[in-house]
Amino acid sequence: MHLRLKKNETAVRMKLTPEVREAADTEKRGRKASKETRRQQLIEATIDSLAKRGYSETTLADVADGAGLSRGIVNFHFESKEKLLIATLQFMADEYAANWGAALEKAGDKAAAQLWALVACDFDRKICTKRKLAAWCAFWGEAKSRPTYQALCGARDVKYQDIFLALCQTLKDEGGYAYDPDGMTLALCASMEGLWLRLMMGDGLTREKAFAAAVEYLLVAFPKHFTREGPK
Amino acid sequence: MHLRLKKNETAVRMKLTPEVREAADTEKRGRKASKETRRQQLIEATIDSLAKRGYSETTLADVADGAGLSRGIVNFHFESKEKLLIATLQFMADEYAANWGAALEKAGDKAAAQLWALVACDFDRKICTKRKLAAWCAFWGEAKSRPTYQALCGARDVKYQDIFLALCQTLKDEGGYAYDPDGMTLALCASMEGLWLRLMMGDGLTREKAFAAAVEYLLVAFPKHFTREGPK
DNA sequence: CTATTTTGAATGAGCGTTCAGCAAATATGT
DNA sequence: ACATATTTGCTGAACGCTCATTCAAAATAG
User: Fold this and answer.
1) CB atoms within 10 A of CB A230
2) Rg for chain B, CA atoms, rounded
3) What are the φ/ψ torsions at residue B226 (nearest 5 degrees)?
């Protein structure tokens, strides 16, 4: 009694998360998926696994299952587990950078509006998901002992920090504030990272409340430039 | 040609870190160490390993080597790797709580002085070490998927948060500030956690600079209560 | 001597990696 | 058109390594 199974029926194989399914759907399902599509699908499955089981318990088997594909698949599309993880982090870093880049574009040329946009976009639906925050945090935990991760985790990198600092400097000049811009920038950036950390830990904190807290900070720091509703 | 090695010459066995050596020295070295001393010694070695290799690469072999003891030792004093890690986190959480508790005691009864003390003690030499920050971060990375860790990582727990909130509330009333105390407290606590994260990542940031940034925050939030040198 | 602590070799489970082979898609020949 | 060969994507069993755990024996303490 031998059942001949129809293969590659991804819909049947397993319940995939929306993200994985979408990644697989950008082109056709099954064999027709291109190399890049498969890679993306596996990256999404990796984020899922990191979020669900944490870094240390993320296995290639779990990633493959999550993607609805077979065991050997990762070593076919990526060379090793390590390379998959790096590609995943790279993807998130790129997405993050693109997000604040775009936000800055749309903000116009007023410094206050730009700073507001920069803070707000960190709490954007697209970026600030439970699963992505969890994945970020998983990498943070390993970053200190892995130079490669450390470099990529500084997606909040030099460039970002410089822009932030310049904006704080400008607002200080405009408003005649008294603080030290370096310390202020550092404290503000750190605050946003800390809010991410707390969002991930997941008590009762929501995206909205976290954003409100960040805004509260902006208000006391730059009273002449902001209201709770936005830049003046 | 058989060399008969003198055993238990810990000084010879391996270069132990100062922390591990100290833990082993609180009572006599060698076999005479009491159960509690050994446990402490192993916990210190665990912190070392977490800091050096990260959570996912911390092995019992590495911990045992770090403590200058043999392979099976952890399963004798702790029951399992998991229990060792939990004990380690528990130790750090207790130490952290004791630290801010003591700081609060010494601060007198002025709210401003208490808040200053609470912020300052987070950047204390004893707590804010590279190795301990790294260990904290390692646990944070795994916390989301492990309820036990999550509970202990909230060492910055409800009690701490409540005190913090009450102090902010008091200062607001005293100074007639306009902010929302909940948001303010959240942003401030988050900022300190974020600063820890950055200290751990280790760019050029020093304890002093991080503390200065936190102070900068206090200054803009409570201008009537603080100067850069301390509470008024 | 008895009890306690420590050792280190043995065990086995879990996991990343490899790879021979299958199947779908595409190219080539007739 | 059809048959055949080649390429490409994928599978899953097998392999070997790492590491937590176990435990019998040794070392030490009392």
Assistant:
1) 13
2) 21
3) -130, 150
Hey, which residues does A226 pair with through a beta bridge?
A231
Helix B111-121 to helix B207-221 angle, to the nearest 10 degrees? 150
With tokens 């900068």, the residue in question is B216
Q: Which long-range contacts (CB under 8 A, 24 or more apart) does B75-81 make?
A: B77/B35, B77/B38, B77/B39, B77/B42, B78/B39, B78/B42
One-letter identity of residue B103: A
What is the model's pTM?
Answer: 0.90
Question: What is the total residue count of chain B?
Answer: 232
Interhelix angle A130-143/B130-143, rounded to 10 degrees, is: 150
Backbone angles phi, psi at A160, to 5 degrees: -55, -50
| Cα–Cα distance, A149 to B197 (Å, whole number) | 14
Distance CA(A131)–CA(A81), nearest Å, equals 20
**Amino acid letter, A180:** D
Q: Which residues touch strand C (CB under 7 A)?
A: A 7-8, 30-32, 57-61, 71-72, 74-76, 79-82; B 7-8, 31, 33-35, 38, 69-73, 76-77
DSSP state, residue B227: E
For residue A224, report the phi and psi dihedrals to the nearest 5 degrees. Answer: -80, -15
| Mutation choice for A interface testing from B180, B197, B205, B218 by most A CBs within 10 A | B197
> Which residue, A122, A72, A75, A120, is CA-closest to A97?
A122
Q: Which nucleotide is nearest to A62 (CA to C1')?
A: C15
| Integer Cα distance of B226 and B214 in angstroms | 12
User: In angstroms, what CA-CA distances link A145 with B12, B54, B82, B131, B150?
Assistant: 28, 6, 21, 11, 22
Instruction: Name the minimum distance, in Å, from the CA of B103 to any CA of chain A.
Output: 22
Spell B30-46 as b/e; 16+ CB within 10 A means b. eeebeeebbbbbbbbbb
Tens-digit pLDDT profile for chain A (232 aa)?
332 333 334 434 457 887 877 776 655 555 556 788 899 999 999 999 999 999 999 999 999 999 999 999 999 999 999 999 999 999 999 999 999 999 999 999 999 999 999 999 999 999 999 999 999 999 999 999 999 999 998 756 889 999 999 999 999 999 999 999 999 999 999 999 999 999 998 778 999 999 999 999 999 999 999 999 999 8
Which tokens in the block code for residue B31? 């076999």
